[in-house]
Structures
1.
Amino acid sequence: MAVNIPTELLRSFVAIIETGSMLQATERVFVTQSALSLQMRRLEDIVRQPLFNREGRRLRITPAGETLLITARQILDMNDRFLASLKAQALSGPARVGFNQDFAEVFLPGLLRDFAATHPEVQMQVRIGGSAELLDLINARALDIAFCVRAAGDQAAIKTGSTEWIGQPGLAEQEVLPLALLEPPCVFRAATLAALERTGRKYRIVVETASLSGIRAAVQAGLALTCRNPLFIDPERMAILQHPSLPAVPDICFALYTAETQSPAATHLAGLIRETVTNLL
């Protein structure tokens, strides 16, 4: 069975080599460091070869990586020339899309950049919000596409993801667990509290906010623990926490909802989102 290497993985790989670091590469490919790390692990899994030797925070390309780099540049050049040839046939019309805030910051900038470059005539409207809000907008026909985080098994799921504890280890030792959670409704909040109550683990909510940046600040400051998907993690400041006193929290899924009727531009964008998420996560 043939194995395909997604071009976005190759583009990120080349960006890391050409810029010299993952941090600098994020400015070129418009994804976070955590997303880049996941992409490189996926690329190494596909080629079944280590592409980097990691020496602390420094990355050195392996011989297999040197070989891949030559081919990757050739593939990307062909891809970019082909897309440029299609600009004359670019789509037009509206595309109204909503993103859950967890993943808007992970891949939205790069996805929008690529889509706008290929289809500059599309009138794109982007809404960032909670999953429940986005589903309401889909049902009200105010959005064409909604990319949401839902409980595992949702009918619109395109990928399953883990839910992990994140924060400083010492906080897990406290008798009453300090938590930082988004305001309801929130899939991660509901799953976290259900897991704690099921196991009888005491907790208190010390930070409750509608903003992911508030959750991230509380965790980085050591005020509280939270449960999110690993894409939430800033690898320089946060890490997955594994502790015997912390209960397992159920997986979530990434779900893509589309309106019953939509423009060709919206249909194309929905396909691009599906492909991007499938290859990234």
2.
Amino acid sequence: MNWKEYEFYIAKHLRRLFPHADIKHNVRRKGIVSKTLRQIDILVEAVIAGFSLAVIIDCKCFKKKVDVKDVETFLSFLDDLKASKGIMITNVGYSEAAYNRATYDTKDVELRIIKFNELERFQTFTGIPYSGGHCAIVSAPDGWILDIAPKGPYLASLYPIGLIQTEAFEREGFIYLVFSHKDDKWPNLEYILMTHEDDIKKHYKSPRIEYLDTIHRDDCATCLRLLDTVELEPRVDFTLFLDFPEIVLFLTLLAPRDKAGIYRKKLEWIAEKLIKGKVRFTSSGTR
């Protein structure tokens, strides 16, 4: 497979995953700063909350790891095109400096590795679960996948690549997403937390509930709760709440105790990258 086939295959796969999104392969857009046409490997466009969202995917089919200079060039490229999000995909990997440059930059950019021999079984890494008029653009962390057709009372789940949902739920790291709409029954986060604690104390004999310092976001308040009880052994439960004006999103992680620290970082990464939006319906009722 050459680099053109590599790009085409990834674009084709994304179209299967997101049939309602406008996904273009090998397109050109005029740069805001450069004032020149820039070539884009894959462009994903959608309208969320009344504004346009543009995700630019850059495919690097290299014989060596992508270096920090390639990531810096990509970040500048995203700025020139005013992209909402950037995803760099390569078949080999990234240098440590490249990972650090992407991770600690303020721009929303992700690095992915997709090898040729894994393309047929590659699953989605970004999805848009929704409830009523609200949605969230959710990305899976490195080494995990996103399942937007879960078998449970939640809208999406995330777990390590190579496992099916039931395996991850029963014995490995497993994260699920729930939307809680604010109304007379669930007016605010404080009431949700209080009600949850009452339910926890009814179902578990001696639960330990602790609230931990966590990520901070400019668009919503955040709260991270740890639940530790013998009934969950050998796992612990972390729930990270994102408190928006009209809705509370919460991400719950079930993790083996010996991997709790590692998987907590995955949970917080997901919450940091999540983009909250609204679903706009047409007169025909379609999204």
